[in-house]
Design brief:
Largest sheet: 7 strands, mixed
Bound molecules: glycyl-adenosine-5'-phosphate
Strand order of the largest sheet: 3-10-11-17-14-13-12
Shape: globular
Number of domains: 2
Radius of gyration: 25 Å
Helix content: 25-40%
CATH superfamily of the largest domain: Bira Bifunctional Protein, Domain 2
Structural class: alpha+beta
């Protein structure tokens, strides 16, 4: 199983999904960069999520907020005080570990470990030219707070009624003690979060509803639900703001670990932001005229972990090929166009016309190297659903062969029907 992780990492690097960050300078502490194919896969997942949870719902709106917020936000949210992991240090080699991830001695040199002390995970920097305490700020460790801080503005501008949600996607930063396992744990990562505001009496119903929505999303991502376990987090292990948490855990090659989380944050955040800001952050029921802080159900989705799981689930070794059986919607390229022979200008010309036309609408690749078989396998390895070949018959009949990634079957389709045929098949 560990082996599968190595295969994914090597494929990701070789084909341009994910590169080690700053590699020409020897890298930087598990930072990773998305390459040309990775950025397409990541964006496709993020867009599918937005479509499912914002675009197609009338109880949801989106925002996109700054990465650095007023430091008072983190005082009010409790992150300054509570957002920490227990850290131990080896007395001999001074390597640092998360106390809950290490045995009784240093795994590096066998040295004795210090007592655990709490280490705040927020990444600090200075805003402005003077590096002094008053200019200290933090990169956001979660997106959630931007949605609480903007709650009243969203309410005023969209006039939503409960229940409704605010969604957002973007970067979050955590000064993890032990980043690792490729894009599973990094210090800078991508999150997709939504805060769903409800009346307190309804929280259990909505918790269950969102638990189910998260399962449905996992199916979109191509995940076999048998590899998912939903783990009820006991009191004492939950985040400081949560009264109930269910972690969605996935069977990774390196063990069963968190993929997503679902939390009942109560009215903790709005209540505290009102206390710290002095602004009224209550919701006013138009009928009863009652004012109260709504309670919050929060489904949270790591985007990088989604990319990792999509790759792990899609990776398939068959007798003669490696194929990424990504759901079509997620595939970086939807089609690839090949002229049968690169040295026949009439084939290249027709193939180029098809390529340019399809590219107006879809991500399409071009390949005119080597033989057709090799080009097919090269596209299989990156999950391209359809390969289109322009051959000599195409010049006479104005058609192309379309070859399906999964069945490997080929058929001829008229050029004029190509775009609609592909669109239809992608939708299924
Ligand atoms: N607002 C709730 C929240 O931030 P979390 O469980 O701490 O909850 C949310 O983080 C999600 O972010 C996790 O379920 C996971 O998918 C992802 N995540 C957390 N830390 C990460 C890291 N260091 N690298 C990559 N993804 C991470």
């Amino acid at each position: 199983m560990e082996d599968l992780m190595q295969k994914i990492i090597s494929l990701a690097k070789r084909r341009g999904f994910v590169f080690p960050g700053s590699e020409i300078y020897g890298g930087l502490a598990n930072s990773l960069d998305y390459g040309p194919l990775g950025v397409e896969l990541k964006n496709n997942i993020a867009q599918l999520w937005w479509k499912r949870f914002v675009q197609t719902r009338n109880d949801m709106v989106g925002i996109d907020a700054a990465l650095i917020m007023n430091p008072k936000v983190w005082e009010a949210s409790g992150h300054l005080k509570e957002f920490s992991d227990p850290l131990v240090e080896c007395k001999k080699c001074h390597e640092r570990f998360r106390a809950d991830q290490v045995e009784s001695e240093c795994s590096n040199c066998g040295g004795e470990l210090t007592e655990a002390k709490q280490f705040n995970l927020m990444l600090k920097t200075f805003l402005g030219p003077v590096e002094e305490k008053t200019n200290e700020v933090y990169f956001r460790p979660e997106i959630a707070q931007s949605m609480f801080v903007n709650f009243k503005q969203v309410l005023n501008t969209t006039r939503r009624k409960l229940p409704f949600g605010i969604a957002s996607q973007g970067k979050a930063f955590r000064n993890e003690i032990t980043p690792g396992n490729f894009i599973f744990r990094t210090r800078e990562f991508n999150l997709m979060e939504l805060e769903y505001f409800v009346e307190e009496k309804d929280w259990e119903k909505w918790f269950e509803y969102w638990q189910n929505e998260m399962r449905e999303w996992l199916k979109d991502l191509g995940v076999n639900l048998k590899k998912i376990s939903e783990n009820e987090i006991p009191e004492g292990e939950r985040a400081h703001y949560s009264k109930r948490t269910v972690d969605f855990e996935y069977e990774y090659p390196f063990g069963r670990k968190e993929l997503y989380g679902l939390a009942y944050r109560t009215d903790f955040d709005l209540r505290n932001h009102e206390k710290f800001s002095g602004q009224n952050l209550k919701y006013r029921d138009a009928e009863t005229e009652e004012e109260f802080w709504p309670h919050v159900i929060e489904p949270t989705f790591g985007l990088d972990r989604s990319v990792l799981v999509a790759l792990l689930e899609a990776y398939c070794e068959e007798e003669k090929r490696v194929v990424l059986k990504l759901p079509f919607k997620l595939a970086p390229y939807k089609a690839a166009v090949f002229p049968l022979l690169a040295n026949k200008p009439e084939l290249v010309k027709k193939a180029k016309e098809i390529y340019d036309d399809l590219r107006k609408d879809l991500m399409v690749d071009w390949d005119d190297r080597g033989n057709i078989g090799k080009r097919y396998y090269s596209q299989d390895e990156i999950g391209t659903p359809f390969c289109l070949t322009v051959d000599f018959d195409s010049l006479e009949k104005d058609d192309v062969t379309i070859r399906d990634r999964d069945t490997m079957k080929q058929e001829r389709v008229k050029t004029k029907d190509l775009a609609s045929t592909i669109r239809e098949r992608l939708a299924n």
